[in-house]
Amino acid sequence: MNPVNYLYLAALLFTIGAAGVLIRRNAIVVFMCVELMLNACNLAFVAFSRMHGNLDGQIIAFFTMVVAAAEVVVGLAIIVSLFRSRHSASVDDASLMKL
Amino acid sequence: MDNLIALLVAAPLLGAAVLLCGGRRLDKTGHWLGTLLAGLSFVIGAVLFADMVGKGAEDRALHQRLFSWVPVEGFQADIAFQLDQLSMTFVLLITGVGTLIHVYSIGYMEHDERRRRFFGYLNLFLAAMLLLVLADNYLLLYFGWEGVGLASYLLIGFWQHKPSAATAAKKAFLVNRVGDMGLSIAIMLMFTTFGTFAFGPVLSSTGESSEGMMTAIGLMLLLAACGKSAQVPLQSWLGDAMEGPTPVSALIHAATMVTAGVYLIVRSADIFNAAPDAQLAVTVVGAVTLLFGAIVGCAKDDIKKALAGSTMSQIGYMILAAGLGPIGYAFAIMHLVTHGFFKAGLFLGAGSVMHGMNDEVDMRKYGGLRKYMPVTFVTFGLGYLAIIGFPGLSGFFSKDKIIEAAFAKGGTEGWILGGVALLGAAITAYYMTRVMLLTFFGEKRWQPAPDPDKAPGVEPGIEVHPGEMPHPHESPRSMTIPMILLAVGSVGAGAFFGIGDRFVKWLEPVTKFEHGHPPIGAAAITSATVAVMVIGVTVAYLQYGRRPVPVVAPRGSLLTRAARRDLLQDDFNHIVLVRGGEHLTRSLVYVDHTLVDGVVNGTAASVGGLSGRLRKLQNGYARSYAVSMFGGTAVLIAATLLMRAV
């Protein structure tokens, strides 16, 4: 199958993720959308790796997974403590950092 | 011999330093030290003079370079002295009259507890004045010029607890400042034109520059001379300067410092010779001041202020002569020297009269003093005869020559200037006769001493008991001897200088001399001078000698009342300068508030408004930040792709 199709799929996933980050208010969903964007990037890396015939892209995909796993640990912890203090998981409620 | 020149200045400078820093332990001896050092300076001057006379006329000038003051590439200012015939004349006048007045002050200031400080200031003045006339460049001259201004300020305000004296000192300082600006601008112009301000190079290369530049420098020098020599339009400080102790009025405001302007013009003769317009301005200033001072002198009842008007007028004669060019320079200096003698003598006589009359200065409250103060009467009388130009006395020789030179200017100008000078001679005779008659002749019009609480103008130091009648007495010998010596000078100096043109020949190598040819004979001018003098004396006698003089001044004519107020000089200054200045500052404040502040505040307000808008971007919503991040990234990628494509 033509590897370019994977790139199309990656772009589609990335766009869905980005739109979810911008539109959704629930922190968990926003978080999932961020993961979706990361995985879209991974897919693009792997596709490019296949297209160019070297392993750099695949190695970077591993790095990305490690970083994403670490991010999930920290991010979920923040969301849980946020929910405990405010009884809400809406990102718009956490808007104290403004003038 | 060259090395002695610095000592001339150093002696009084040392005196000033010791007396002003020495503290109270010098209170008992300080006045002797000050007088001794002034005398030492005179002795050195006399030694140098004897040496100078022994040499040929052309190589009499001495030079001494002490050290380089400002050694900068392209800007050389040296502490260097030049002693030529012109400087020598001044050195002898300053140290001679200065020493006499030091001696006089020992007696005059005897009861003043700040006498040591007074002598310190006097020595400071001598040092600065000697520096002024001995400098060999304009910058050092400027240094001395400011120094005498400072000494004058300190001495006018010596009795600073009197508000009038403190104000007079400030007034003198401020008016002099205006003139000093002229001198500093002139020096800057010289530097830009010639690249130097030493007398030698500047004065020998005046022909290389344009006449316009010479006129500019000349007018600025004239402004400086107007300030220092109390010439119209900067004359207003001299009358008030009489608030100072009388020896100060005699030394600084009659004999020496106020003549510094004449020195400056004569010293810069080459510049004025190259600028006829500036010369004309000098003669006009001289002629106007001559009449101005004389008219003021006629109306004043304060003996010192009458003499101050006379000083102004006589310096007007000198400035007039200095503006006539080579036909007048030598006569300007000659009149300056004879004036130094007789005016200093007159002031010392006035001081002596005040000393005996409980410090009363109003001549209408004198009268009949000739029997009580014979020495003062005779010396004052000789000074009086000298100033009105009585034939044979010194004023006759010097003033007559100036009048001749004024006529010799030629054309209509010559007639006008000569006529003004003659008219001035008549008025001089009038007001001096008036002073003489009011003070020494007529009935006693003495008044009991005023209550010092009600009349704070009384000079301190002399005990005045309210209500006590004055009992005039002759002054102590330390005061009469200087008066006698100055009277001898007033009598003899003119004949000594004038007969055989001795003074003119002495100064000729420095100032050059051309014989002026008046359109009418010299004998006719001399007789006219004597005739107007007699008319002036007669008119004054008819007015003040034949009739009893009222103690309270009559209202007088419009001119008299104006002259009593110094011909409205202060009113003029107030309306034109003070009010004008106020209006100017007020309008500047308005411009500052509206325009400058408007621009500044407007900028601040628009920046503030803009940042207020930008602040709205920081709304705290993570999602809106994410939008801007996505947007920014999209723009960057689009730009990169676009650049690739191009």
Automatic annotation (TrEMBL), chain A:
Xref: Pfam families: Oxidored_q2 (PF00420)
An MF annotation (GO) of this entry: quinone binding
Record's catalysed reaction(s): a quinone + NADH + 5 H(+)(in) = a quinol + NAD(+) + 4 H(+)(out)
Compartment list: Cell membrane; Membrane
Enzyme class: translocase
UniProt similarity note: Belongs to the complex I subunit 4L family.
Biological role stated in the UniProt entry: NDH-1 shuttles electrons from NADH, via FMN and iron-sulfur (Fe-S) centers, to quinones in the respiratory chain. The immediate electron acceptor for the enzyme in this species is believed to be a menaquinone. Couples the redox reaction to proton translocation (for every two electrons transferred, four hydrogen ions are translocated across the cytoplasmic membrane), and thus conserves the redox energy in a proton gradient.
Subunit structure: NDH-1 is composed of 14 different subunits. Subunits NuoA, H, J, K, L, M, N constitute the membrane sector of the complex.
Protein name according to UniProt: NADH-quinone oxidoreductase subunit K
Organism: Streptomyces agglomeratus
Automatic annotation (TrEMBL), chain B:
Residue ranges annotated for the NADH:quinone oxidoreductase/Mrp antiporter transmembrane domain, each copy included: 135-419
Signal peptide: none
Annotated Gene3D superfamilies: 1.20.5.2700
Keywords attached to this entry: Membrane, Transmembrane, Transmembrane helix
Localisation per UniProt entry: Endomembrane system; Membrane
Organism the protein comes from: Streptomyces lateritius
TM annotation in the entry: 31-54, 89-106, 118-135, 141-160, 181-203, 248-266, 278-299, 372-394, 414-432, 479-500, 520-542, 625-643
Bilayer topology annotation: Multi-pass membrane protein
Residues of the NADH-Ubiquinone oxidoreductase (complex I) chain 5 N-terminal domain: 69-119
Protein name as catalogued: NADH-quinone oxidoreductase subunit L
Superkingdom of origin organism: Bacteria
This protein's encoding gene: nuoL
PANTHER family, alphabetized: NADH-UBIQUINONE OXIDOREDUCTASE CHAIN 5
